[in-house]
C-alpha cells in the first residue's frame, strides 16, 4: 500500500470534498450540510488555511485542516490543527504521523515556529497519538460561546 501526501490547492476541490466526507465518517457527524463549492474554493485559495490529504491511489484516506494564525508578539505565525482524521481501516499504519510531518515541513518553509492542536481529555487515542508524535501537553480550559 503506497500512500501519497499532498497539500491541497485551489484546483483540488474534489479532494477537499472527499476530505469533508472522511471527516463526517470518522467523527460520526450527522446531517452535515456541505458548503457551496464557491465557498470551498475560497477556502482552498486562502493562504491562511492548510488542507493536507493522504491518498491511496485517488482515494482520500486521511487528512487535516489547519489555520495559520499571525502573531502579535513576533513577526511569525503559529498553526492550529483544527481537524485531523484517518479512515478507520488505515489507522495505526503511520499515516497520521506522516500527515502531521508533511504539514509541519510545509510550516517550516513558511517560517512558522509553532504548531498546536487540542484534544478532548476523554479522547485517549488522540492524546496518545499527539504525545507519540512529539507533542507536549498543556493544561488549558477551553470556553465556547454559541452565537
Keywords:
26% strand; Aminopeptidase; globular; single chain
- What is the strand content? 25-35%
N-to-C terminal Cα separation, in Å? 45 Å
Q: Strands across the major sheet, in which order? A: 1-2-3-4-5
Mean pLDDT: 95
Query: Can you write the helix and strand succession as a string?
Result: EHHEEEHEH
From the coordinates shown, what is the CATH architecture?
A: 3-Layer(aba) Sandwich
**SS-based class:** alpha+beta
**Percentage of residues assigned to helices:** 25-40%
Largest sheet: 5 strands, mixed
CATH superfamily: Gcn5-related N-acetyltransferase (GNAT)
Radius of gyration (Å): 15 Å
CATH topology term: Aminopeptidase
Low-confidence stretches: none
- By DSSP, the count of extended strands is 5
Report on this model:
The protein contains four helices and five strands. It has 147 residues and is of the alpha+beta class. It has one domain (4-132): 3-Layer(aba) Sandwich (Aminopeptidase), CATH 3.40.630.30. The protein has a five-stranded mixed beta sheet with strand order 1-2-3-4-5, with helices on both faces. The mean pLDDT is 95.
